[in-house]
Structure formats: C-alpha cells, structure tokens
Design goal:
Blueprint: H1 2-18, H2 24-29, H3 39-48, H4 59-71, E1 76-81, E2 87-93, E3 102-107, E4 126-128, E5 131-133, H5 141-156, E6 165-170, H6 180-191, E7 195-205, E8 211-220, E9 222-231, E10 235-236, H7 245-257, H8 267-279, H9 284-293, H10 297-310, H11 314-320, E11 324-332, E12 338-339, E13 342-351, H12 357-368, E14 373-377, H13 383-395, H14 404-416, E15 421-427, H15 434-437, E16 443-451, H16 453-457, E17 465-467, H17 468-486
Parallel strand pairs: 3-6, 3-7, 7-16, 8-15
Antiparallel strand pairs: 1-2, 2-6, 4-5, 5-17, 7-8, 9-13, 9-14, 10-12, 11-13
Protein name: M20/M25/M40 family metallo-hydrolase
Organism: Brevibacillus choshinensis
Keywords: Hydrolase, Metal-binding, Protease, Signal, Zinc
Length: about 500
C-alpha cells in the first residue's frame, strides 16, 4: 500500500509539473549555457536531457544512449527491460578472473520538478557559472556520469584487470517495483560482485572551497512511513462541525512539525561526530565532542542544538544525530462543498540503526495527544511481519572498512584531496544497496564530488547543480580507485 499510495501521488505531481511552462528566466537561460572541455560534464549534460522522471520517465532511452557510448569502445553491454517498460543498463569490462568483480551502481531515474521555480530548463543540460544544472545533476546523474566516465577511461587506457568491472545504471531507485531488488531476484548473476559502490557519502567543502572531509557510507538509515488517520462527521460545508477530521489532522501535523526527536547516536555516528570534531574549529569542535561523548540526554540535546546552529551542514548533521520525522503527503476531501469524514497523512521517518519504528510510533502518539488520530504503519505488512522485517534491518551490520574497495577509496581520496580526512559514515537517507547487502556483499556509498551546503540543499529541490570542477576531481578519484582495486598488480 505504501508504494501504491506514494506512487500515485508522484504520478499526479509528475503529470502536473510536466505541463507547467518554463518561466521566462528558465527559457532565456537555455541559450546561455557555457561550454566546457570536461568529458564528464559533457556526458552529464547529455544524460540530463533525458527526462527520466520517476514514474514514467525515459530510462529506456537513456539506457540505449549509454549502450551506444560503451559499444563504441567494444565493451560488453546489455539493456534489461522491466515489466513497466523502463530499463536497467549493464556494462562489463572483462578481467582475467583471478578476483571477483567490483560493481559501480548509479540510478538513472530522478524525482519530479516544479518547473516554474527553476531559473533554467531542468532537462536542458545547462552549464551556468561553472555548474552543470538540471534535475539529477547531483542526485544521481552526476554520479552516474562520474562512474561511467571512469569506467570508460579504464577501457580507453587498456588497463589490464584482475577482476571484472561492472557498471550498472539502475531504474526505479526513487520509487517503483522494478529497482535493484527486482534486478537481483531475476538477474543476480549479472550484478554479483565481491563489493559494490553506490551513492551515499558526502565530500565536504569549506567556505574557501577546500575539501575537508570525505565520507564513505557503510550503512543507510532505516526507512519507514507511518499513516495518520483522523475521523469526523461528514456534512455540508455550510455547517462546519467541531469534530472535523481535517481540523484534527491539521492540529496533529502542527504538533509533529514543531517537535524534534532527541539525539539518538549509535557507535557509528559517535565515531563520525568525533571525527568531525578533529577538523572543526572552536567552539564547534567542543560541541561535536560533547554530542558524541555525553551520557546525559540533556547535555547531548544542548550540544546537538549548538552543532546545528554553528555547523556548515546543519540539516545533514541534524539528520545524522537523530531519528527524523517529516510529514510528506496529505489527503482529504472529495468535493469543495463537502466536509470529509476522514483525513490522512503520510509521515516519513528515517531511523538510526538501533531504533525501532514502534518506539517512534509511540512517541508520535504521545506528541499528537489525540486518541481520535490513529498512527499506523503505512504498509501492507502485518505487525508480526513488520517486527521481523525491521529486526532484520536493524541487525544488519555496516559494511567492513577492511576490504580492498574501501581501502582503494580511502587512498584515492587522499591522493586527490590530501588535506581531507576520510571517515566511514552513516547515510542519512536510503539507497537501493540492500539488494547486495542482503546477500552478504559489502556496499559503500559516495557522492563522488566535493560540494558546499548550498549545493547539498538543492538536492530534490530547485536549480539542482554540481560544479564542473567537482565532477573532474571526482572522476579522477573514482578512476584511481578502479586502478587500485581492479588493476593487475
């Protein structure tokens, strides 16, 4: 039910936004696109011009385009069509088989856009002020371009390989039934590997543009959605009732949005904030250390507030230190002159591993403090099935940092950004890496380009972008990683 409910809302939004004309500023910007020599930036421009909005976007056309690029180099390729008419793309560089393959996975689908709020065509592949702009520029067609370009460079340079290098452009990562779980169930032999690289960790820049930290994520937060349901007496809109379902739901949502969960750290996030404290300046460094080490909930809460107030990436750090709670969908009413008898909202939660959805559900019910508003899992699973599922998600271990891929990422990051600290991290959102993790394959995550907070906050928002310089640096880092992890000794 969760997937159908959210998918319907996204489809409606996609259809509406696709019909919205560009603003005059966006239309004018199409002819203002800058030219660059970066092959990765050029590839990203081409990929952005495929409107691969999920649902219903052009992932098949994008897959065929990628196939043409790799076919020109003589690489083994395949387009795998899904029952929905979309597609995954696979390219494989053959090694000598002495080691198991390494996989690089990047999703080709993107979230919808609100065109009227963009200053450029979101599907125009525009370069402006040194940034490639467009839906998916950062999440994750930029990463797809970096991974693809690095793999093609390995082929172009005829690098001898001990292991196959598999490049995968995935469909249905943002939503849908035919993502990597479907691919693994039906075509596992084509994506089986010793370890995998996916989206995830951030590469931080300071105010001067210096790269200070490289995060390699080894685990994702746990995804869960709740449904809030309020009931009231349906009647004519000319005679409002005091027990309105919309009123009850609105009051509940207001309480939730004005509430914040307490810091909930586990061993991984404690180590992460301690690592941040070693490169931060005072007084932020002390607050980060207090957040990581304090056993007093009140002191940890105060330290967390200061970290968010003073930090360079406030929303990211806020999310990493706690279970986040965000209302995302509201539905009520059938006609404008009818007061509805029920109203529903979806509240999306990202859990720090170690927490359970049932704990957060109880917290939500206490915060709402209205027995007339029911909180339940937005899922078709029974409570028993849900408990088992989330126990498995919580028990899953982070990917080991003692592998050839993690070490190659660490060494290559230091070679490109010598002053940066490389740390394993928790990803504050979710990826489709579970298809491999559930089968015992370590998965590491990275957005392979340095970025500032402004660029980070445009993710899934307006005027999404990534800098050309960052794309170039990221391509160099990923190429070096492939040489270290797959090249012949």
């Amino acid at each position: 039910m969760k997937r159908k409910f959210i998918g319907t809302a996204l489809l409606t939004l996609s259809l509406l936004t696709s019909l919205t004309p560009l603003s005059s500023a966006a239309a004018d910007s199409i002819v203002q696109s800058e030219t660059v020599s970066s092959e990765t930036a050029k590839l990203l421009q081409e990929l952005l011009r495929f409107d691969s909005t999920n649902p219903g976007g052009q992932t098949l056309a994008l897959a065929e385009f990628l196939k043409s690029k790799f076919d020109q180099l003589g690489v083994e390729t395949e387009v795998i069509k899904t029952p929905s008419g979309q597609a995954h793309f696979i390219a494989r560089l053959k090694g000598n088989g002495s080691k198991k393959p390494v996989l690089l996975a990047a999703h080709s689908d993107v979230v919808p856009v609100e065109r009227k709020n963009w200053t450029v065509d979101p599907f125009g592949g525009v370069i402006k002020d040194g940034y490639v702009m467009g839906r998916g520029a950062m999440d994750f067609k930029g990463g797809l371009s970096v991974f693809a370009q690095a793999v093609m460079m390995v082929k172009e340079n005829n690098v001898p390989l001990n292991r196959d290098v598999i490049f995968l452009a995935e469909d249905d990562e943002e939503a849908g039934e035919y993502g990597t779980d479907w691919l693994a169930k039906n075509h596992w032999e084509k994506i089986n590997a010793e370890f995998a690289l996916n989206e995830g960790g951030w590469i931080f820049q300071d105010a001067d543009g210096k790269t200070t930290q490289v995060n390699i994520t080894t685990r994702d937060k746990i995804y869960v959605s709740f449904k809030l349901t309020a009931y009231g007496k349906p009647t004519h809109s000319s005679r409002p009732m005091p027990d309105s379902a919309i009123k009850s739901l609105s009051l509940a949502l207001a309480k939730i949005t004005n509430w914040d969960t307490d810091p909930t750290l586990n061993d991984q996030t404690r180590e992460y904030f301690l690592a941040l404290s070693r490169t931060a300046k005072e007084p932020l460094a002390s607050h980060l250390k207090n957040l990581a080490e304090s056993k007093d909930p009140a002191k940890a809460r105060e330290a967390g507030k200061k970290v968010v107030e003073l930090g360079s990436y406030p929303l990211l750090w806020h999310a990493l230190m706690r279970n986040t709670v965000a209302p995302t969908i509201v539905q009520a009413g059938v006609k404008e002159n009818v007061i509805p008898g029920s109203a529903e909202a979806i509240v999306n939660v990202r859990l720090v591993p170690g927490s359970t959805p049932f704990e957060v559900m109880e917290q939500l019910q206490r915060v709402i403090a209205d027995p007339g508003v029911k909180v339940s899992l937005a899922s078709e699973m029974t409570e028993e099935e849900a408990r088992k599922y989330y126990e498995q998600r919580t028990a899953a271990l982070a990917s080991s940092t003692d592998t050839a891929l993690y070490k190659a990422l660490e060494e290559s990051s230091k070679s490109v950004w010598p002053e940066a600290e490389v740390v394993p991290a928790l990803f504050e959102a979710g990826t489709d890496g579970a298809a491999w993790r559930d089968r015992g394959v370590p998965v590491y995550g990275i957005y392979p380009y340095p970025l500032d907070n402004d660029t980070l906050e445009r993710m899934h928002g307006n005027d999404e972008r990534i800098s050309v310089k960052s794309l170039e640096e990221g391509t160099k880092m990923i190429y070096n990683t492939l040489i270290k992890v797959a090249g012949s000794d």
